[in-house]
Automatic annotation (TrEMBL):
Name the UniProt record assigns to this protein: FAD-binding protein
Lineage of source species: Bacteria, Bacillati, Actinomycetota, Actinomycetes, Kitasatosporales
The protein's required cofactors: FAD
InterPro entries membership: FAD-bd_oxidored_4_C, FAD-bd_PCMH, FAD-bd_PCMH-like_sf, FAD-bd_PCMH_sub2, FAD-linked_Oxase-like_C, FAD-linked_OxidoTrans_Type4, Oxid_FAD_bind_N, Vanillyl_alc_oxidase_C-sub2
FAD-binding PCMH-type domain boundaries: 32-211
PROSITE patterns cross-referenced by the UniProt entry: FAD_PCMH
C-alpha cells in the first residue's frame, strides 16, 4: 500500500477504520459486504491508471464507487479489495452551448450538471430520484433512469462517448462528440451499465438538450386502484400525448405518505397517477390528459400550471421511499414489463404479497412500465427474511414470464445475480462471461457483481 500511495499523483490512500466502514457498502445495506484492504481517493485519471496497474501487478480486486447510492449492491466491497472512490473527480471539463454537450468527470453530482446546463439555457434530462446525491459515474455504471425517462430516455441515450481505464491501466476513449458516429463496435453502450466490471469510467461526453419553452403543466389523477391507473399510460400513448414525467403511486404507498404528511386525498385506498408536460403545448396536453383520465373512471382529477402546486404534487412521488422507510426495513426492487402488461404485473404483485404475507408498496415510472416494488419487514430482522426473498423471487420470475426484464435502472449488482441466467439464457450468459474475461482476464474488476 505504501508503494501504491507513492505512485499516485494526487490521490490518497486510507486504511482508517471509519473510512473503510463507510466505503464497504452502498444503500443495499441488508446485503453482507467484506472489509476492504484500503480506500483510494482518486483525483485524476492518472490516479486511476496507477491504481489499476498496481492492482494488476499484485492481483488485488478493485471495487469502483461513486456516492454509494446504489440499491442493488453493485458497490459492495469484498475482503482484501481496494475501494476506488471517484467522488473527488468533480470537474466539468467542458460545457459547449454550440455542440450541446458537456464533458464531465465521474464524481460530478447529477443535479449539479443539471444546474450548470440550466445556466446556459440547456438541460441534462436524466433525473434519477437520487439526483441530488448520486454521481454521474454511478449513473453511467448502472445506466440510471429516473422520472423523465419516458420522454428523454435513460442515461445511455445521453452518452456520446467515454474515457475508460481498463483493468491493466490502459486508457481508451469510446464514441464521439459529433451528432452522428458509427465507427467500430459500440463500446460506449458496452461500458454504460457494466457496473464497474469491465473498466473504470473516468470521463464522459454527455448530450445536452435545449430547455423546454413555456411553463410546465401537471396532472394528478386518482383511481380506485393501481391496476385501474395503469390503463392511462397506454391511452396517453394512443392519443399521442408524451409527458416528461409519468409516475404511478399505488394505494399502499399513498397510505404511507398520508400517514407521514397528511394529503388532501379523495378517499381511502386510492392510487395516484402523476403526469407533467413541458413545451409550448403543455397546458393543452395536460387538459387532454385530465379529460382522458376522467373517461377512464378516475375518481378525481386535478390539472395545474401553477409552479408551486406542481412542485407540491411532484414531491408526493419524490418522498415515497422516505415515507415507506418510516414503516420498517425496506428492500427496494426494480424491473420492467411491456407497457401493455403494467396492469397485469400490478395485480400479480398484490397476489404475491398476500401469498407470502409480505407488505409490498409499489411506485412505477408508468410511461415505460418500470416498477419499483418495495418489500417491507420488521426492523428487528437481522437480515432479509426468507419470505421476502420468496416474494422477490416470484415477482422477478413473473416479470420475466410477462416478457419483462430484471432491471430498468438499478442494475444487477449482487442482489439479482441469482436471476440473471433466467433472463439471458445459457448462451447469452456465456457471451457475457467471454466479454468479461477478455477485458478483465484476472477477474479483479468489481468481482462478484452481475455475473
Amino acid at each position: 500500500m505504501a508503494e501504491l500511495a507513492d505512485r499516485l499523483a494526487d490521490g490518497e490512500v486510507s486504511t482508517e477504520h471509519a473510512v473503510l466502514a463507510a466505503h464497504r457498502t452502498d444503500e443495499a445495506y441488508l446485503v453482507p459486504s467484506g472489509w476492504p484492504l484500503c480506500a483510494v481517493y482518486a483525483h485524476s485519471t492518472a490516479d486511476v491508471v496507477e491504481t489499476m496497474r498496481w492492482a494488476t501487478e499484485h492481483r488485488i480486486p478493485v471495487v469502483p464507487r461513486g456516492a454509494g447510492t446504489g440499491l442493488a449492491g453493485g458497490a459492495l466491497a469484498e475482503d482484501g479489495a481496494v475501494v476506488l472512490s471517484l467522488e473527488r473527480m468533480t470537474a466539468v471539463r467542458e460545457l459547449s452551448v454550440d455542440d450541446r454537450l458537456a464533458v464531465v468527470e465521474p464524481g460530478v453530482i447529477t443535479a449539479d450538471l443539471a444546474r450548470a446546463a440550466d445556466g446556459h439555457g440547456l438541460m441534462y434530462p436524466v433525473d434519477p430520484g437520487s439526483a441530488a446525491r448520486s454521481t454521474l459515474g454511478g449513473n453511467l455504471a448502472t445506466n440510471a433512469g429516473g422520472f423523465r425517462c419516458f420522454k428523454y430516455g435513460v442515461t445511455r441515450e445521453s452518452v456520446l462517448g467515454l474515457e475508460v481505464v481498463l483493468a491493466d491501466g490502459r486508457v481508451i476513449t469510446t464514441g464521439h462528440r459529433t451528432t452522428k458516429g458509427v465507427s467500430g463496435y459500440d463500446l460506449t453502450s458496452l461500458f454504460v451499465g457494466s457496473e464497474g466490471t469491465l473498466g473504470v469510467i473516468t470521463g464522459a461526453t454527455l448530450r445536452l438538450r435545449s430547455k423546454a419553452v413555456g411553463p410546465r403543466a401537471t396532472v394528478a389523477a386518482y383511481f380506485p386502484d393501481a391496476a385501474a391507473a395503469a390503463r392511462a399510460p397506454l391511452a396517453l400513448a394512443r392519443d399521442g400525448l408524451t409527458p416528461s414525467f409519468l409516475e404511478l403511486i399505488d394505494e399502499v404507498t399513498l397510505r404511507a405518505l398520508h400517514a407521514w404528511q397528511p394529503l388532501d386525498l379523495p378517499g381511502d385506498g386510492v392510487a395516484l397517477l402523476l403526469a407533467e408536460f413541458d413545451g409550448v403545448d403543455a397546458d393543452r396536453a395536460a387538459a387532454e390528459t385530465g379529460r382522458l383520465c376522467g373517461k377512464l373512471n378516475a375518481v378525481a382529477t386535478q390539472v395545474t400550471t401553477d409552479e408551486a402546486e406542481s412542485e407540491r404534487l411532484l414531491d408526493i412521488r419524490r418522498h415515497a421511499l422516505g415515507a415507506l422507510e418510516r414503516m420498517g426495513r425496506t428492500m427496494v426492487e426494480d424491473f420492467v414489463v411491456p407497457r401493455s402488461r403494467l396492469g397485469d404485473m400490478l395485480v400479480e404483485i398484490r397476489r404475491i404479497a398476500a401469498r407470502h404475507d409480505v407488505l409490498i408498496a409499489t411506485v412505477a415510472h408508468a410511461g415505460d412500465a418500470n416498477l419499483h416494488p418495495t418489500l417491507l419487514f420488521d426492523r428487528t430482522e437481522p437480515e432479509i427474511p426468507a419470505r421476502v426473498w420468496s416474494a422477490a423471487d416470484d415477482m422477478f420470475r413473473t416479470a420475466l414470464r410477462l416478457g419483462g426484464t430484471l432491471t430498468g435502472e438499478h442494475g444487477i449488482g449482487t442482489l439479482k445475480r441469482r436471476w440473471l441466467r433466467d433472463e439471458l439464457g445459457d448462451d447469452g450468459t456465456g457471451v457475457h462471461q467471454t466479454i468479461k474475461s477478455a477485458l478483465d482476464p484476472l477477474g479483479i474488476m468489481n468481482p462478484g457483481k452481475v455475473l
